[in-house]
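Standup notes
- DV: blocked on the single-chain target, sequence here:
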Amino acid sequence: MSKLNDTIHRVTERVIERSKPGRTAYLEMMDREADRMPERSEVSCSVLAHAYAGATEDQEALKEGRGPNIGIVSAYNDMLSAHQPYGRYPERMKIYAREVGATAQVAGATPAMCDGVTQGEDGMELSLFSRDVIALSTAVALSHQMYDGVAALGICDKIVPGLVIGALRFGHLPCVFVPSGPMPSGIANKEKQRVRQLYAEGKVGRDELLASEMGSYHSPGTCTFYGTANSNQMMMEMMGLHIPGSAFVQPGTRLRQALDKRAVHRIAELSGTREKNMARCIDEKAIVNAAVGLLATGGSTNHAIHIPAMARAAGIIFDWNDLSELSRAVPLIARVYPNGSGDVNHFHDAGGMGYVIGTLLDEGLCHRDIVTVSEGDLSDYAKEPGLGEDDALVWRETGESGDIEMLRPASDPFQPDGGMRLVEGNLGRGCFKSSAVEKERWTIEAPCRVFEEQADVMAAFKAGELDRDVVVVVRHQGPRANGMPELHSLTPPLGVLQDRGYRVALVTDGRMSGASGKVPAAIHVTPEALGGGPLSRLRDGDTVKVCAATGELSTTADLDAREPAAKPEPKLGVGRELFAMFRHGADGAEQGGSAMLAAAGL
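- DV (later): unblocked, structure below
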């Protein structure tokens, strides 16, 4: 067994020490919740009647207390391709529960918006705070306290972190996350990228663009690029919250159904125990493992926000210094689109998460001894699932990588670091995803052009005003300004400028998509511009330097001599006015950009 890497050990110990007060208080609270969890025989008959009224054929089993009752929290809708398969899950899960003498009820539903649908649209300003709403909805669902375990059904961007945060406040219960898998592969990703850039240049029309996009996003299942949704599934494996190997098995297959069945059976097995409840599963080592997996696979930059937020819900403090230090020790071992040519189906076929976890464990780059929902520790996740006789689940060794251009051993990586770097200086602190950017573009120093809106960037691009070396600054995009929308729609035009030979970078207090691409970008910059952050004092023509190699984000301008730019007027419509309380109460991106966690004092 390999010795744990010194940096992984050091960062983990620092997180443990820093988190002691909050973690101790959290675990004490979860133990109290377990102690006071009501026996259903002691609950009033009126309450029980309400709880059982809709259970139809499970009423007798519930009334007699024959076995554990599983609460299903579902983020189903059929506007999200990833969540469309969940529509039939509850009825199947109830059957699976009966097989082991348990029952299951849909405890509640959470919203589930698709960032892909709202990209570049006003609705994107609700996206980040939908995570808080999902956490709150999860809490409402579980507040009935009629459940002995939780099945969490969610996949996409803010949904899994929101479910994690909500479930952690019921951490005295066991909780298994149940994915539904990716859609089959569509058109080649390079072709999709090519058509997007042609459209940005005005060389193809909307008909061609729509045909290309529908060739990529074409059927039920998770989008196949390695963005936030699929990074979520990777993290659930690294944290031991899935049935091992569940992440990237396609919907509608016999293997998918076998994994779903095992998830329900396992929740029933875990009910009534404290050793593997949610509170014990998500500890400091699990949080570090999530970060290690993110770095090793070149995952979504959005998790620089989500990991600290999830950690806080478990009484743990994890920051960007921790992430950046881990990045220097964790090698990049996967190249999945947009960092490579193949998608998550190719990644899974090449060995997938079983291979990733196995090689990281072999090199001592993650914690083996975490508490998981499986029978053992993280070693259980270093295998791949399959079907044996009578369609019984079996787990096999992954063997060597099936595609060395996509998935490499940690001893022979694509690059020696994980490519998620902290950049900081007199413009604040931000994140730079270097794994997606050619090394010769890690340093950009050029006059800046300052914008307040994505649409203004697009207009300037179309007018030819950005045809030069330029650092594009898009400010007042932070949590408190407008909910911190993703700015993924800027990737094609900035990519065009870069392909024309210009040295281009983006600096913003907003987010980029989990599909952040080849253009160097300092994102999530904090303090945000609203309230007087450094970006609010930049002016057109100021020289800005972004350097992933040295970790620099700076300007030569005398910012102290300037007043901050005017506060933008709040936007109305698309429900944005209803989210004002979230914007007013949000904390910084490095803390997770959450109003809910800030208000709770976590």
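- Follow-up: The radius of gyration is 24 Å.
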